Amino acid sequence: MDPHGGHYLNKAALLSPLGAARIAQLVLGCSTMSLVAHQAGYSANYGIFCMFVWCFCFAITAVVFTLDVTRLHGCMPISWDNFTVAFAMLATLMYITASVVYPVYFLRFECPSGRCEERDYRIAVTVCSSICCFAYGAEVFITRAKPGHVVGYMATVSGLLKVVQAYIACIIFGALANDSEYNRYIATQYCVVIYSLCFAVTVVVVALTVTGRTSALRFPFDRFVVIYTFLAVLLYLSTAVIWPVFCFDKKYGTLQRPSGCPQGKCPWDSKLVVAVFTYANLVLYIADLVYSQKIRFISQQPA
């Protein structure tokens, strides 16, 4: 007990739906890493990425859980609620990616030389990783903004969409770096600039919110977010037109995948990934803009 009669440990961090979700994250994350290290194995860039996801999310979750249980998060110079919900959203996306990538590149249902132990371990890794997606998703669901409750910006739909937008931009950058031939035309280089600019501003918005520095700005933060989101919609709309034209039009590229293009190292595949996720992010920015306007409209209603 402390001098003021309170408890050192936060029981709600253990005996609550949020606590149960975080305990499940830790158990499933530890199980996944143990299975991979023991027998399932990993290799190449895709395997390293999956192992990084599992280790990174486990480490941050362990820190979050410990700080919440011991009430030490109050000593952190950040907005704790904004940080935890933003991380939970990011971890959900990372786990979904790893849960798709790992079985695609490492799981084969046939057993080489009659040995099925490695395959069974890889199936178990996929199952644990997939279930952990729901554990992190449950935390997002529990901590999201609800009618009548005052929450941080990152717990709103707009805040959560910012995390998804930044993550999708990272996927686009990965595809661009994988022999996408984006430097062949000025127009495609322009698209890369737009992807980078929107990603940078989105990360700044998230960082300012998580660190609790939005009040230090000399202009209204909510107005800045709405204006930026509107500009991002226009910029992404331009890339959604330019990128497919300069990659798939017969004057600059080809609509069909080249028959002799090697699997995993085909520029056409990278261009397609960029195009698909460009449209995905465009839809997310439009949804973000609509929701931001709705929140702004409601906040202007008389009491």
List the helices and strands and how they pair.
Blueprint: H1 17-40, H2 44-69, H3 80-106, H4 117-143, H5 157-177, H6 186-210, H7 221-248, H8 267-299
Describe this structure in words.
The chain is mainly α. It is built from eight helices and no strands. The protein has helices spanning 17-40, 44-69, 80-106, 117-143, 157-177, 186-210, 221-248, 267-299. Helix 3 packs parallel to helix 5 (157-177) and helix 5 (157-177) packs antiparallel against helix 6. The longest helix has 33 residues, at 267-299. It starts with 16 loop residues before the first helix and ends with a helix. 33% of the residues are buried. The model is unreliable at 1-5 and 296-303 (pLDDT under 50).
N-to-C SSE series? HHHHHHHH
Number of strands: 0
Q: DSSP helix count?
A: 8
Low-confidence stretches: 1-5, 296-303
Strand content: under 5%
Distance between the termini: 43 Å
Mean pLDDT: 86
**Largest sheet: number of strands, sense, barrel closure:** none
Briefly note the structural class of the backbone: mainly alpha
From the alpha carbons, calculate the radius of gyration and give it in angstroms: 22 Å
Helical content band? 55-70%
Name the overall outline: flat
